[in-house]
Amino acid sequence: MRKNFGKFAGLFALLAVILVGCGMATDQEPTPDAVAIKTQAVETAMAEMTVQAALNPSATPVPPTITPLPTATRFTQIPVAAGGSSSGGSTSGGSGGGGSKIATRTPTWPSWSSDDYRCEFVDQYPYDQAQKAGTEYDIVWTVRNIGDRKWWTNLTEVVRLSGAEIAPYKSYQLPKNVEPGETVQIRVDIHLPTNPTDQMLTTEWGIKNDKGTVFCRFYHSIPRLY
Q1: What is the pTM assigned to this prediction?
Q2: Are the C-beta atoms of residues 116 and 147 closer than 8 Å to each other?
């Protein structure tokens, strides 16, 4: 009897140890693997980033277009012959040793310009009107020198341009030297035909300089002869 009790007591003790062990194992939560936790966290973050990228796509920046700068224009200097000048006026050349010289065209300037010889009509007597046939009188024009040069009596001449039928003389000497701004009276003889006519008669005159150019013109017209 005592032997059986001992056996049962041993079995009860072993059972109690097993039950206690099972109870402790049941109450304690298993420790998770650290590596598995880190792997799961990385995968979760990557999935979240993928979703955010799909929901908020960012525009790819386009590089700015580079506009090329305009090419600078080179100004070529006009070659000037040796001894000359690049400014206005004539250039003087010369022969010298060593190499050939570039030929340039030398401008030819007139001895006078349109501003040198100019005139302004001031007055006339008698005025253009009907005249009696066969009348002889002097027509007087007053003109002013508005140019830049003096009118010299030996360099200028009053010449007839048309109207020989009423003005028999073809030229006259300028009565005096005329400074710029001064006036001069030019007198021409008029001889009218002896026969009356309704045809207008005109004679034109001018002042000619020493270059042969007429720079001042004036005329006298008679509408009819009675």
Answers
A1: 0.51
A2: yes
